[in-house]
Amino acid sequence: MQAIATNKNVNVESLMGAFAAKIDSAGFAAWIAPLQVEICDKCLNMFAQNQFTADYVKKEYENILGNIAADFCLDLNIAVRANNNNVALSANDNVVCEYKPTTKPVQNKNGFDAFITSDENMFAVAACKKIAMENSSFSQLFIYGPSGSGKSLLLDCICNTTNKNVVRMSGGQFVAEFARALRDKTIFSWKDYCRNCDMFIMDDVCALAGKRASSDEFMQLITDLHAAGKNIILTANGTPNSLNGFDRRIQSLFASGLVVDVAAPNAYVRRSMLLKSDVDMNVANEIAKQINADGHLVNGIINKIKTYTELMGERVDMDIASRLLADVLNKTKTPLMMVKTMCEKMAVSFDEISGNSRARRVVRARQIMMAALKASTNLSLTEIGNVCGGRDHATVVYALSQIEKQKMSDLILNAEIDDMIKLCK
Known about the structure:
alpha/beta; Rossmann fold; 4 domains; five-stranded parallel sheet; four-stranded mixed sheet; 19 helices; 9 strands; 11% strand; globular
């Protein structure tokens, strides 16, 4: 901050302290502190280094700044200061201090042919193709699904198919780059970088959960991109309404466009992935039946088989595969494994299920799991209660009775329970 006090009756530092008390710390650091401030003829002049900054400060903070200035008997003037030899350029001027990303997106050649489509994923793939090839009727695409379902691969396909100018980053990169831009005083250039695109893609928005300043900045970015008619693509592990650590405003913003789900790879998709990587057919058939529905796990198996073939100089048959993949091939599913798999599918954490949370979505998920375990295993009600967080026999009985009542009128609940039963078998 550059401050020039010409009115002896007013202390500029006191003014800035009053501003800081009324404006959130991230907003003050990003927008108010870098301004050049001076008091002249009972007028508080606040000069920005560019018109974008001046317009934004007027739009977001003029009422607050004006009211505080009035308390000091001053008028408020927010303007752009013309550059001259007597005024040093601010370090965060977006012409002088250009923002440069610290990480570059991974370059690959995956087109949509690389994504093996199942019946469950046809709608999501069609939406991705639409938004990649032309301006779509939906202004935002929100893709959700469990880890290993292919969300990042779909983003690769979009990036390698579209001719649009794309800015892509993960949620973690957004948080880190936002903090770095504030620290290096390149925040205006960083804002321009995020907005000067035809398509903005963020993988794993869950990384923003609980980070208020980053979430507020991201919400403003999405709002600006919407207003400019840009395409926006977001991914997460759960539906917008099920994401923890976000307030209702951001959940509503996430749900404002087209929300599609990507299912974890079924046995057909797992088999196709293995065959596509030149794994013997009988080996691919058997492995696809024995592993979990996780694309990351399938890719790890493919890499292990390829590496073995290259190093040992022999094809992998089922005997070799059994020894080589003993750590990942499922012999039997334990009840704990079933519960954790269902947690991932329903986008709730195992800690929530086994804890004392009474949140409606957690209680519903816990009851569905109990019903699925009852239908797919020979566990006693006491054993089911133990694996679901140490619930007693009466609690399990009550949960199952509630589920039975709801199943009579809720077709969606019936489908969810059927899906969970399939995961347990």
